[in-house]
Amino acid sequence: MSIEANRPVDEIMRQWPATIRVFLDYQMRCVGCPIGCFHTVEDACREHGADRVKFLADLRAAAAKAPVPAVEA
């Protein structure tokens, strides 16, 4: 799965915890927000006046830099 504008912000933060810092850097207090499971990245950008293209690029960059969790056998 990839980070797209139509994905809920809560889902993105759960799957890629490193993206939480990006939300905070953009002054988005989506972490723990009760509507985070309903709001998409598109919604959050519109609500907070953020450039969607740049925000998505920053989310993807943060997710790409994050270490991949080890899978236990």
From TrEMBL:
**InterPro entries named among the record's database cross-references:** CHP03980_redox-disulphide (IPR023883), DUF1858 (IPR015077), ScdA-like_N_sf (IPR038062)
Checking SUPFAM superfamilies in the record gives: SP0561-like
Q: Which superkingdom is the protein from? A: Bacteria
User: In what residue span(s) does the DUF1858 domain sit?
Assistant: 3-53
Instruction: Read off the Pfam families from this record.
Output: DUF1858 (PF08984)
Q: What is the protein's name according to its record?
A: Hybrid cluster-associated redox disulfide protein
Q: What is the lineage of its organism?
A: Bacteria, Pseudomonadati, Pseudomonadota, Alphaproteobacteria, Hyphomicrobiales
